[in-house]
Design brief:
Blueprint: H1 2-25, E1 29-35, H2 45-53, E2 55-59, H3 67-76, H4 82-87, E3 90-94, H5 123-139, E4 160-163, H6 171-184, E5 188-189, H7 191-194, E6 218-221, E7 224-227, H8 237-253
Parallel strand pairs: 1-2, 1-3, 3-4, 4-5
Antiparallel strand pairs: 6-7
Helix pairs in contact: 2-8, 3-5
Length: 257
């Protein structure tokens, strides 16, 4: 009897890893995220949203970085490999410093026309590089014999998604990212529109900005104190609300599987 139980235990141990692998490979989508402290893994909204979408989250966001860092990583090949690119169903960008990311006065025709590495002096140029570089990398997969898109006229389909700031206080960025999304025809995850409060109305109990009650720190803009980083962790309300907003948009733009 003990021998039979031992054999059953051994069989279960050998099969369990296969179940884990099967679950990983059965996910419908793979989503790539770049960003800074509002998108890094300790927040949780991206990972929660991916769970609800049955997607593998590839979170390359790093606190204190900017869109210039993403551009430089693309230039040196560390944001993704060509093999990883094949797996990505959507590329989500959440670099939300309160800068003008639309300004067209210094943009180049091709991504190869830009001087690298980038610094943070021109957010619009860095955004332009990232967009054009990603589109080019996707298109060129049709010439990559190792790619599943080899021979496709369009290469790998492009699915770039922008994000607003998590609330509406960053007016320069939020307005310019909307213009940039409209220019390219890219979907925009409007956290600021659906988060559930606005800078235009103070909290009726505290008499202060609504964003403060959901934030772990503060930031002053034009003499007004706002919530800076939202409270982090998958259990936090604001992360779960952001996950819902993110997942809702992604269901509209991801290909049917």
């Amino acid at each position: 009897m003990m021998k039979k139980l031992f054999l059953i235990f051994v069989v279960l141990l050998s099969v369990m890893p296969l179940f884990g692998q099967e679950n990983v490979h059965s996910a419908k989508y793979t989503l790539l995220l770049t960003g800074a402290s509002f998108a890094s893994p300790e927040n949780g909204w991206f990972e929660l949203g991916c769970e609800s979408l049955d997607a593998v989250p590839v979170n390359r966001a790093v606190g204190a970085e900017a869109i210039a860092n993403t551009a430089n990583k693309m230039e040196d090949g560390t944001l993704y490999s060509l093999e990883e690119l094949d797996e990505v169903d959507a590329f989500i960008i959440m670099h939300v410093h309160d800068k003008d990311v639309f300004d067209e006065t210094q943009l180049k025709e091709k991504y190869t026309d830009y001087s690298t590495p980038f610094d943070r002096s021109n957010y619009a140029a860095a955004y332009d590089y990232v967009i054009k570089r990603y589109i080019t990398d996707c298109y060129n997969q049709q010439f990559n014999e190792h790619s599943i898109y080899y021979g496709n006229k369009y290469g790998k389909p492009v699915n770039i998604i922008f994000c607003t700031h998590w609330h509406d206080a960053r007016t320069v960025y939020n307005s310019s990212i909307r213009r940039l999304a409209a220019k390219w025809g890219f979907p925009l995850i409007e956290f600021d529109k659906y988060i559930g409060f606005s800078k235009n109305v103070l909290h009726p109990v505290t008499g202060s900005q609504f964003s403060l009650i959901y934030a772990q720190d503060t930031q002053e803009t034009d003499g007004v104190t706002y919530g800076w980083h939202p409270q982090r962790g998958k259990e936090k309300f604001i992360q779960r609300k952001m996950a819902a907003i993110f997942a809702d948009m992604m269901r509209n733009v991801l290909p049917v599987r």
